[in-house]
Amino acid sequence: MGVNRTTVGSLVTDLASRGLVEERLPPDNPGPGRPSPLVGPQIDGLAVLAAEIATDSLAVAVVGLGGTIVVSQRVSRPRGFRPATDEIAQLGRLVRGCMAEVGADQRFFAAGISIPGLVRRPDGFVRLAPNLGWRDLPLADLVSQELGLDMPVLVGNDADLAALAEHTRGAGVGQADFICLWGEAGIGAGIIAGGRQLAGRDGYAGEVGHVTVNPDGRPCRCGSRGCWETEVGEEALLRGEGEALGREWTCMDSLLQAAAEGAPAATATLDRAGRWLGIGIAGLIDIFNPGALALGGVYARLYPYVRSAILAEVARRTVGTSQGPVDIGPVVLGDDGALLGAAELAFAPAIEDPTAVPRREARQPRPQPARTAVGRHTAAQQQGGEAEAQRTA
Ligand SMILES: [Zn+2]
User: Fold this and answer.
1) How far is CA 378 from the centre of its chain?
2) Nearest CA among 18, 13, 1 for reference residue 350
3) 172 φ/ψ sector (left φ>0, alpha ψ -120 to 50, else beta)
């Protein structure tokens, strides 16, 4: 950076006073003289709350700087529309549980929430979340009221946030142009173009699931017909389209199990899905010319079965591959991509301007919070025994 040692020292001291970095001695110090300390993110100095509202699960985490999940909890439930008031109340309960676990000393900077829908970023207003049944919902305000905490609440689209996380620490690292295709009940794309997230005028860019690919296709929840989502969304997969029409699977696990056993109806369903996925992905590649494209959510699990069909369609339909093939594959961060992206969203203002983080008193050593399996059982019981709760520390 061309700054002298004294300037570096004062900048590091300033960042440390805000709980953003800490200095450690190097593990071994072979040379003579005073060793130069190593500077790294202070994981427990400043944290954010992250939440992911998905159609089939609700997850909450305390995440430290550097993407470290300090404590998290994910509750699974059947897919379906959910009243926003119930959802926000449950989110509040999970947040309070996680905060109790990390202890009262933990400082929080902001909260970030991922949802499968159209979000107006500046005020966290949800315009439409078709697979939750939400429309025109001031989600950031409602969550702020529920939590009653003195911190900003930021809301983002799940595919956008998964792309942000994968771009920072997953399949898109080092790629200035990267697409993360995120499939749950619907499909969205998070697009990084020229190193920046593509948002569009209102923040709604990337709703690739509602691009018409089959004008004679089925009606879509968005009100249109033959959207990409109606051809390769989870509902279409479980319904068994084309050669496997009429054959229904109860869940993605049963479809994948049948495919693993070589059941012709399952294989035909996945071949068909792979072709439609490949057709859409080829279009995205031609429009955005990405260096890498990662498939996440449901599609990460599906990928081994649809890979060859996708690659065949992409090879057949794309025009601009002179600079080498696009690196296509599953996401690296697994199912936590959108959750980790929500944490990145919450940290973003602190990264942009570290002076937005208040200074604090000198650090006091504090005991590690207890993280035991007892909490998991308690959470599962709170969910009526039906839901599955996971906890990682
Ligand atoms: Zn649609």
Assistant:
1) 26
2) 18
3) alpha
pTM of the model: 0.85
Please write the tens of the pLDDT for every residue from 192-243: 999 999 999 888 999 999 999 889 988 998 889 999 999 898 888 888 765 5
Phi, psi of 73 (to 5 degrees): -145, 130
> To the nearest whole number, what is the mean pLDDT of the chain?
86
Does residue 285 contact residue 318 with C-beta atoms inside 8 Å? yes
- Residue 219 C-alpha to ligand 1 middle, in angstroms? 8
CA of residue 225 to ligand 1 center, whole Å: 6
**56 C-alpha to center of ligand 1: Å?**
19
Integer Cα distance of 341 and 294 in angstroms: 15
Helix intervals (H) in the chain: 5-17, 84-102, 139-147, 158-169, 228-232, 234-239, 252-260, 264-288, 298-317, 337-352, 374-382
**Cα angle vertex 64, ends 155, 74, to 5°?**
60
Taking the CA of residue 27 as centre, how many other CA atoms within 13 Å lie in the half-sphere pointing to its CB?
Answer: 0
Direct distance between the N- and C-terminal alpha carbons of the chain, in angstroms, rounded to an integer: 36
Q: Looking at 120-134, 295-309, 343-357, 369-383, which range is the least confident one?
A: 369-383
> Which residues have CB less than 5 Å away from ligand 1 (the ion)?
210, 220, 222, 224, 227
User: CA angle 329-160-250, nearest 5°?
Assistant: 65
pLDDT band (50, 70, 90) for residue 389: very low
The alpha carbon torsion through 163, 167, 170, 171 (nearest 10 deg) reads: 80
